[in-house]
Amino acid sequence: MRCAVCGGFIAGRYITDAWGNSYCARHQDEYPPCRACQRLVCQGVTGGGVRYNDGRVYCRLCRATAIDTPAQARAITQRVQAQMARYGVDTRPYSFGLEMVPLSGIAEPGEDPARIHRRGRAETEIRTVNGQETERRVRVIRLLGGMPETLFAGVMAHELGHVWLFMHRVDGLAPPLEEGLCNLFAYLTYQEIGTPEAHIHIRHIEEDPHPIYGAGFRQVWQRYQQMGLAPLLRAVLTGTV
Ligand SMILES: [Zn+2]
Ligand SMILES: [Zn+2]
Ligand SMILES: [Zn+2]
Q1: What is the largest CA-CA distance in the chain?
Q2: pTM beyond cutoff 0.90
């Protein structure tokens, strides 16, 4: 078997990635993985790639569909919103800004940008008069700039999930439930896209070891299988989940 990285015959330990590329194990220390598709970023596997100023590395294949501008972001967001509306998560009535940011733009104060799990965040606002809520709105959704289109769509579906919950005044869900539900929306978006790239992200969500994002998703997934989506969403809205 030939190595996808160096082209030599593989002798000894080797790795086969999710795309079916096999390569000598040592290359793992020589090249970074693409932050979107997980392939080794090198000439042989991806034709190279780019490193953004915030340190993120994407391969050339992912870079080919990168979403860099708010105009590109807006077009895909509308597509994702239309899809989600079909299964009862309609965020089209709400207006919000869209910003493409580096890692530091979605980090919480004091959080190390290199270690964050999120790829987006929605900035929300509740106005009060004398302690009474008078208005709530979404100011802006910030997503990492330069993500490939498929990943962007999934991350946007996740953030739109937060927007939908917030605008329906679903406050104080347990974090694994809220993040798990938003990951379910990302998951369904990837299912709809259905490409090999989308399946990489599906597997990533399914196998995520994170106690909130991963375990939360698996908990929500189980209920989704038992109840179906519409009853699950109704239970969330009525606080009976
Ligand atoms: Zn090799
Ligand atoms: Zn990639
Ligand atoms: Zn989230």
Answers
A1: 73
A2: yes
* AA letter at 92: R
Residue ranges of E strands in 114-154:
120-129, 132-144, 147-148
Asked if 144 and 120 touch (Cβ cutoff 8 Å), the reply is yes
Q: Report if residue 5 sits inside a domain.
A: no
> Does 144 lie in the same domain as 51?
no
Give residue 53 CA to ligand 1 midpoint distance, Å: 29
- Indicate the SS3 state at residue 70: helix
What is the per-residue burial (b if ≥16 Cβ within 10 Å, else e) of 52-77? beeebbbbbbbbeebbeeeebbeeeb
Residue 147 Cα to ligand 2 midpoint, Å, equals: 9
Domain that holds residue 38: 14-63
- Measured over the CA atoms of residue 82, residue 233, residue 166 and residue 112, the dihedral's sign is negative
- Which ligand ends up closest to the CA of 161? 3
Does 4 map to a domain?
no
Distance 20 CA to ligand 3 centre (A): 30
Same domain, 84 and 118: yes
Write the CA distances from 52 to 34, 58, 69, 201, 215, integer angstroms. 12, 8, 15, 21, 30
pLDDT tens, residue by residue, 160-197: 999 999 999 999 999 999 999 999 999 999 999 999 99
Judgement on whether residues 105 and 94 belong to the same structural domain of the protein = yes
Short-list 138, 106, 100, CA closest to 119: 106
Ligand nearest to the CA of 184: 3
Whether 118 shows a pLDDT value over 90: the answer reads no
